[in-house]
Amino acid sequence: MNQGRIILKDKQFKLTIERLCYQLIENHNHFQDSCIIGIQPKGSYLAQRLHDRLLELTKISHIEMGFLDVTFYRDDFRTRIKPLNPNETKMDFLVENKQVILVDDVLYSGRTVRAALTALEHYGRADKIELISLVDRFYNRHLPIKSDYTGIKVDALDEEYVSVEWKEIHGNDRVILFPKKMN
To answer: Alpha helix (H) ranges present in 32-101?
Structure first.
């Protein structure tokens, strides 16, 4: 495997999530009309972390949260060589008239977010949709989509790959920039 450069380590990772939580609290106050929706699969880890920490910080008993699979809403799903393995959508609520906080780990081309926006339409018409991403690869956008809340911005070349590792899967939290996409 290619040697990567760690751009966010465990302590900074935790502080970044903490900062994002405080920004959300500033804008959503009691979260009574807000919901958090993680884009499957990797955005769900960040969504869960944000949700859990927001409950701790605000002492609110409940903030609606769900996980949204966008596999078959992507504009490239028919062009894949390998069969697709969709994730489960876990949403037991509608987004009608709510402020949706859409969550993904890395914002790259914007295509995943566009797919998520389309998929969300099946759950009602949101009053407002905001995007939060842990990593924003801001020079690689294919669509006019940007994060409302960003953990870190990374200036990465197209052939470079940003990997977010989660304690729940990899044993520690970190963001790594690899010179080429890993296979």
So the answer is: 43-58
Q: Residue 115: is its pLDDT beyond 60? A: yes
- What is the mean predicted confidence (pLDDT) over 66-94? 85
The CATH number given to whatever domain includes residue 11 is 3.40.50.2020
In a domain, 79, yes or no: no
Length of the chain, please?
183
In-domain check, residue 61: yes
CB under 8 Å to 179, separation ≥6 — which residues? Answer: 2, 3, 4, 159, 160, 161
This prediction's pTM: 0.92
The percent helix, strand, coil of the chain (3-state, each to 5) is 30, 25, 40
Q: Distances from the Cα of 43 to the Cαs of 2, 40, 117, 157, 179, in angstroms?
A: 24, 6, 14, 22, 23
Query: What average pLDDT score do residues 113-127 get?
Result: 97
The residue whose two tokens read 């995007």 is 131
Please report which helix (H) or strand (E) contains residue 136, including its range.
Answer: strand 128-136
Whether residue 173 is contained in a domain is answered as yes
> How would residue 2 be classed by pLDDT, with cut points 50, 70 and 90?
low
